[in-house]
Amino acid sequence: MRMKRAAIVDNREISRQWLTNWLESMGYEVTVYNSVQSCPMYHEDKELCSGEDPCFDVLITNYHFQKIDGLKFLKLQKQKNCNIRKMAIMSDRRSIKLTAEIEKLGYKLFHRPFHFSELNEWLSG
Question: Which of 60, 68, 20, 65 is nearest to 43 (CA)?
């Protein structure tokens, strides 16, 4: 059986570091990207994603990036038939509209600062 795999896409080094440590302690193999553009999932064509065996089990991304926001990145993954089981966005921005849009698409929004217990509940659910 393969290890559970997680991807973190965040331009904040401290967030990447503590999320990596926490996910590794939960038994995940973690891959980290410091921007959407550095992530291969952003560049790969639709045909490259089979949708059957996801490249990751979990994808956690920041909302705020320079060229594309985290929500557009996750929508792009859906368009590519991406079958990642759990996808979430982290944001400092508190907006009822943004929260509703993210949840309508089936993603999770974590408002910073958040606690490991919130992440643990999300991963367990």
Answer: 68
Under 8 Å CB-to-CB from 116, ≥6 apart: which residues? Answer: 22
pTM strictly above 0.85: yes
Per-residue confidence in pLDDT tens, the chain, 125 aa: 788 999 999 999 999 999 999 999 999 999 999 998 888 777 766 555 565 677 889 999 999 988 889 999 999 888 877 888 899 999 988 889 989 999 999 999 999 888 889 999 999 98
Q: Which domains, and CATH codes, for the chain?
A: 4-124 (3.40.50.2300)
Cis status of the peptide bond prior to 113, with omega within 30 of 0: yes
Q: Coil, strand or helix: which one is 6?
A: strand
Residue 6 structure tokens: 């997680």
